[in-house]
Predict the 3D structure of the following.
Amino acid sequence: MSKHLPLLIIISVFSIVGMKALANPGLFTAHDIWHQVARFYHYNQAFIDKQFPLYWIDTLANGFGYPLFFFSYHLPWIIGIPFLELGFDIPTTIKVLLFLSYLLSGVFMYLFSSELFKNKSAALLSSILYLWVPYHFSTILVSAAMGTAFVFTFFPLLLWGIYKIGNDKSPTLGIIFTSLGLSGIILSHILTTVSLLPFIIVFTLWILLNKVEGKERNDYIKNVTFSFFLGIGLSSFYLLPAVFYSKLTQVSTGAFSALYQNNFVNIDQLIYSRWGYGISDNAKDGVISYQIGIAQWLAFLGTLAIFLIGSRLAGHLIERVSKETKILSIVLIGLFAFSTFMMIDASRPIWDFTSRFITLDYPTIFLLPAAFSGALLGGLLLKLIKRNLRPALFIGIAAIALYTNRNHLNVNMYTNYPVSLYVDSETTTNSYHEYLPKEADIKLFNEPHPSPDVTISELTRNTRGISFTTTPKENLTLTLNHFSFPGISLYIDGEKKNFQQDARGRIMFPLLQGTHQIKVSFEETPLIKTAKFITFGSLIFVVWLISKMLLLTKN
């Protein structure tokens, strides 16, 4: 690693300059910044309430309860909790997390591409292009999309692991990197995984067909498959409940399920579009930029030109191109073109078909694989040309990336609001309240809570549930302003009881005359317990692999 230290320092400098806007006091306006502060606050409160990992937040949805962390990402907040324990406040920790995601994305991109290209200069250029790409800046400084920011981090780690499985004598480190990379992506933003799957599959096949030979191919397939399952295992505590319980929410209905339909972009927006900070229901409105990056487009076109007319340039401008490198060029050119295609209207039939089976996000989630493949194409282009031309090309492409992104380094406006304002302003931390239980009536949020039919005393509430004492004067059926969802349990005088659900999704149960202690709390379901067990077992196995590798290294 010491041989890479000078270049890693350079990457750190580029990261500091790129994220200099985060150094200002306070927070800033961004699309998701209010959501992020509230989510982190509730995550920390649930941790204090001894929920970990957490799923249900009883204090959300105006006190009706909300299954936020059944479906929203965990990893950034897990990384952030220790910073809060050290005394950092929530706004500062959010900025630290965004910067760490940015810096580590550049580091992992460099380490991955240095092995892929066997060329440090090419790897450094790819890392710079990955850091200084418009979508990276908009993700952090315009949207504050914490989950996507960490996908930028873990994607190169995943591919680095896959590469090492096919190239190292021992696959252990590759298995560790692959499993950690995949679980990191899933736990950061599961929907983005859909846009990365074509890249992951094609890249894995490229290594299989070009880097592995004979009987070793079976071992490669087994090790990669095992790594994927291990990564899924590490994230099972979140992934399994998210998959199995999503059908019980409103995520597949209403506005959220149709988000993709109005958010295809024009090809000219991907080449150049004016920078902005607005929010729109239609991507073609042009209130924010969806450009892939001028430097990335030039890298794509330059590599494509070499591939198409390379034989004419041989001996003058480019090095002798091996079959392996030629195929890699085709792969990266194809993935860049495919990612671009998936964001424009021509791909609508594919989205319409896929939406029948899974709920989709915005088509512009393909900006990440486009940015990634464009960054790799920059490094590949540098490797392809003659050595005497490389310094000029490196400086030229890097300068273009820096110059064309010079106006993307700022936030819209700095703020200094108290955390309580962010928290009190967020009903569910989701714009469409899409994770509400399917039967929950969203109109309840705009109605005053009716006075209960009984007197209530000794009311306590935390993120796990509520408890209170009540004394009905007659037998009755009590309806609580609390939504029902798997894991929600009712206790009357310490005894677990069944309950029904009214037409608006609330808990309803019979209650006899007299004084009663009522408790409604979230408890882990058998599915959650199984998922946690799988995660724990997978984590133990990864720790064992790391220990084994370190022991062998010492010997």
About this structure: The two ends are 19 Å apart (CA to CA). The first strand starts at residue 27 and ends at 28.
